[in-house]
Design goal:
Elements lengths: L1 H7 L2 H12 L5 H5 L6 H13 L3 E6 L2 E6 L2 H32 L6 E8 L2 H9 L1 H8 L1 E4 L7 E6 L6 E11 L3 E6 L11 E10 L3 E9 L4 H24 L10
Antiparallel strand pairs: 1-2, 3-9, 4-5, 5-6, 6-7, 7-8, 8-9
Protein name: Metalloregulator ArsR/SmtB family transcription factor
Organism: Streptomyces hesseae
Pfam family, one: HTH_20
Length: about 250
């Protein structure tokens, strides 16, 4: 929390957060446009925001996109503000979600968490059927080769897959991209896409960023946000303690 307050104490960094709030998913060049600072100075400010977990980054080819990560702000809100200004903040939250949904060309949900584990272990937890069953309640089944099918299969022995798709990209311990849809779901614009980006921070910590895009509407975005928050919290607990949370958050 000290890093968050330090990051927010600078007017330039607050300006960068405001820009991402208005138009999430910008490159460094876009963020520097119109600001009286060099790219190097902006990079330093963004580094402090990223260290405070206020900004997450996702690579798209040669571009590095920056996203506002609302989790630390939400923690400040709950502790210091929400109990006094809850109705007002609900209205602001609804406005923010509406603005983010309007940016259909950018990823519609981005979530970053930090896990005390190695990239290999996080990769295994995302792709191993037994490990996914332990913390997700479903087994992820595939050979994880680009172009191969994958299934999010129930663990009750029925063989029913609630989600199916294709492995689009699979770089072990670095990046996994899959399509995501119900087995009989009618999606005129095609299935949604989920990307898992793993970034080692030292020898024992991994930054895991999940990007879920091509969501149909605000209702599906809210559903994805709630689902991924629960699953990734359970994944983090499972890898760090050896067992999942005592109560499935998605129930």
């Amino acid at each position: 929390m000290d890093r968050v307050f330090k990051a927010l104490s600078d007017a330039t960094r607050r300006c960068l957060l405001d820009r991402l709030h208005e138009n999430n998913g910008q490159t460094l060049s876009e963020l520097c446009d119109g600001l009286a600072m060099s790219r190097q100075a902006a990079t330093q400010h963004l580094g402090l925001l990223e260290a405070a977990n206020l900004v997450s980054t996702v690579r798209r080819g040669r571009e590095k996109l920056h996203y506002l990560n609302p989790v630390p702000l939400h923690e400040i809100q709950e502790r210091w503000i929400d109990k006094f200004e809850r109705p007002h903040l609900r209205a602001l939250s609804a406005l923010k979600q509406k603005a983010e949904h309007a940016m259909s060309t950018k990823p519609q949900f981005v979530y970053t968490t930090y896990i005390e584990a190695t990239p290999d272990k996080v990769w295994e937890a995302l792709t191993d059927p037994e490990m996914t069953a332990a913390y997700w309640g479903h087994s992820n089944i595939s050979d994880w080769q680009p172009g191969s099918a994958w299934e999010h299969r129930r663990t009750d022995g029925s063989g029913i897959a609630d989600v199916v798709g294709t492995a689009v990209e699979a770089v072990p311990a670095e990046r996994l991209v899959i399509t995501w849809a119900g087995p009989d779901e009618d999606r005129p614009n095609g299935p949604s896409t989920v990307a898992f980006d793993l970034k080692p921070l030292g020898d024992t910590v991994v930054q895991l960023t999940v990007t879920h895009e091509n969501l149909r509407d605000e209702a599906e975005r809210r559903q994805a946000a709630g689902g991924w928050t629960a699953v990734l919290s359970n994944l983090k607990t499972y890898l760090e303690t050896g067992k999942p949370l005592s109560s499935p958050l998605w129930s």
